[in-house]
Amino acid sequence: MGDGSCVELTRAELRADLEAGTEAAAARAKVPPLTAEELDHLLDIWASPARFSAVDLGDEVVLSVDGTNAGTFLSQHQDLQVYERDFGFDIVELGHVDYSYKAVKTILPYQAQLMRDAQLILTTPLQYGAMPNLGLYSQPDGPVPNWSELLPLARIDEARAAQEEAIEHAVKDMVQVADAMWEAGADGMDFDTSGAAGDGDFLATLRAVETIRDRYPDMGIELGMAGEFVLGMHGKLEYDGVRLAGLWPREQMKLAAKAGATIFGPAVNVNTRKSGAWNIARALTLVKPCCDEAAIPIHMNVGMGVGGVPMAYYGPVDAVSRASRACVDILRLDGL
Amino acid sequence: MLAQPCAHSLASGMGGIRAAGDLVARMQMTRGMRLKEAKAYVAGKLGIGEDDLSDPIVMNEVRGERGLGRVVTGEASYPNEPNAIEAKFRIAELLDVPIACVSRFVERSGLGRGAAAGH
After folding, report:
1. Which end of chain A has the least Cβ crowding within 10 Å, N or C?
2. Which residues pair with A221 in a beta bridge?
3. Cα(A153)–Cα(A147) distance, rounded to whole angstroms?
4. Are A295 and A255 contacting, i.e. CB atoms less than 8 angstroms apart?
């Protein structure tokens, strides 16, 4: 199930869940449902009694990760080495436990020093990651009026103005961190859970990416989303003439590529009350058009609670490995 | 850890520096190459098949021969081979892409000045 609990389903019940999941996504996002052949393949994966499932030899994809915390008493450098040497990750990431650009800015020289030192001991590419987290710029945590308090009072213009001011602060912080990380030798930047605070959050990220790409043509930039749909907390914001509120993964990807990202990470949230089969069919249906039309690599988000992976701290490996394989087999994407 | 990083790595990952995952990743990051193009590019540079890129036995030999850095284990160590920052000099040259920390190393160590002076 989407919460990680184990249930027993017949092959017919699994098939019904797969069909319901893809139909729910197709109706909501106005995209094609998965084909009968694709549903057959998913059914074979989910109906297998095997404890673990994996892609065919030769079909392996690049793995990036948001944050590299092994949960040990080791240093961050040692955690990175664990991900590089023991977990075999293709891209590893340095990040602070307070994983937001606004928070990181206050300790930036120390984070940059960690990056510089880590680059001396790692071979695999190392990027720096954090969240745009536009909400942190609103009162009482930040300097601008809180639009979540203004909106219920119908003070719409003030709420919009507050978000527009917050965007300026967020762009400045993200670019400042990227400047320091480039000087420290970072291979790339990761903007994780973009759009978490709605269209303003996404716009701030796109504008930061555009500036960073302009300054550093060879820097990797991964833009990962918070969810499948950009919420219209502002409602009127646009990037490159495209209204951001209401965008689904395919349109999000196009703007990320336009801004200068080299990797895009679509995210589809899990419904904890539905089965893994229902969730994976829904997620793949929403992301497939994005992969089909992508001009840049797609690394789908498949961490806890997204991309068909259960919302559970201790996710069962049968569920995680099935989601992992399904993304690669059906989407033919570039990474996870 | 077992659930997500490890399960994904075993189910669908390229294996990082155990194989050629880091090399393919660099082409995605710096050049925005999609997977098929990036695998073909790296395989071409190494003179091997694309299926070999995820094979740790083949890639361990290739990495050793070319000095691209290998995983040190309890059973295998390579004290006389390039590792980490040293290996990244060779990776930048092999892939023909700039690596930021290599550029910083050259600038800050004075190697660039030495080369310019003919040392």
Report:
1. N
2. A189
3. 10
4. no
Domain count, chain B: 1
Q: How far apart are CA A123 and CA A88, in angstroms?
A: 12
Nearest to A226 by CA among A268, A258, A255, A190: A268
Q: Which of A157, A162, A133 is nearest to A147 (CA)?
A: A162
Q: Which of A155, A158, A235, A159 is nearest to A202 (CA)?
A: A235
At A67, is the pLDDT very low, low, confident or very high (cuts 50, 70, 90)? confident
B89 in a domain, yes or no? no
Give domain status of residue B8, yes or no: yes
Q: How many CB atoms neighbour CB A207 within 10 A?
A: 18
- How far apart (Å, rounded) are the C-alpha atoms in residues A330 and A279? 14
Q: What is the band of B114 on the pLDDT scale with cuts at 50, 70, 90?
A: low
**pLDDT at residue B115, rounded to an integer:** 53
Query: What is the DSSP track for A247-279?
Result: --HHHHHHHHHHHT-SEEE---B--TTS-HHHH
The beta-strand segments (E) located in chain A are: 92-94, 126-130, 188-194, 220-225, 238-239, 242-243, 263-265
* A178, containing H or E segment: helix A156-183
Q: Are A334 and A297 in contact (CB under 8 A)?
A: yes
In this structure, is residue B119 part of a structural domain? no
* Whole-number Å distance between alpha carbons of A225 and A206: 11
Cβ contact A61–B14 (<8 Å): yes
Distant-in-sequence, close-in-space partners of A114: CB < 8 Å, separation ≥ 6: A76, A77, A94
Q: Is residue B66 part of a domain?
A: yes
Are A327 and A333 within 8 A, CB to CB?
yes
Q: What is the mean pLDDT of residues A118-140?
A: 97
Domain range for B65 is 2-83
pLDDT digits (tens, 9 = 90+) for A285-324: 999 999 999 999 999 999 999 999 999 988 899 999 999 9
Q: Which of A120, A222, A295 sits opposite B85 (nearest CB)?
A: A120
Residues 12-41 of B with CB under 8 A from A: 12-19, 21-22, 24-26, 28-35, 38
pLDDT, greater one: A63 or B115: A63
B100 in Cβ contact with A219 (< 8 Å): yes
